[in-house]
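Q: Give me a backbone?
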Amino acid sequence: MSTYLQRQSYPINPAIFPLLSTSATASLALYEYIFLNSLLKASQTQSQKYSSSVARTIALWWSQSLPSGLAVILSLGLTSLITGIRTIRAFPAGSTRRWVAVAGTLLATGHFAFAPRISKVIQGMAYAYERAGVWERKVDAMEAGKTEEQVAEEKALEGQREWLRVHFWRTLLTDLPALGCFGWLVFAS
């Protein structure tokens, strides 16, 4: 532990708390990518009969996990923000450690910069088969010469593809670098 932290009588390095919350965020992000990507791959490699089942599973997963999943990710993000600010204040102004803490906190919070773009995609997947989109599906189906079921399936699968693209870049650009910043603050002492 650095002498600065010892002088301030911190019993442990304060960066451990945002490290734990960003670790949880990154772990969740990686798990979601693996799980949801495997569903999407199953829809591409199986027959049409299974593709429809996979699309329904994706829509059901999103509609059922959205409230609790949102609560978890907001809790982790808020924890990273609050503990990140606390970590920033623990290091002397102008020090490298303080700048790394600032970067880690901004990166962890940056996860939510992707929310406006991705929220509509998630909503489209979660409610692809719900009654709210019946009229839209009827019009889309008539224009494309497809059934409503096929239109709902395409919306769910295309939404999942888009979510995976955005999620991949969000994880790569915000979650993993934030984890690296707080990891450096804890383990480079």
About this structure: Helices lie at 3-7, 16-45, 48-90, 96-110, 115-126, 134-144, 148-187.
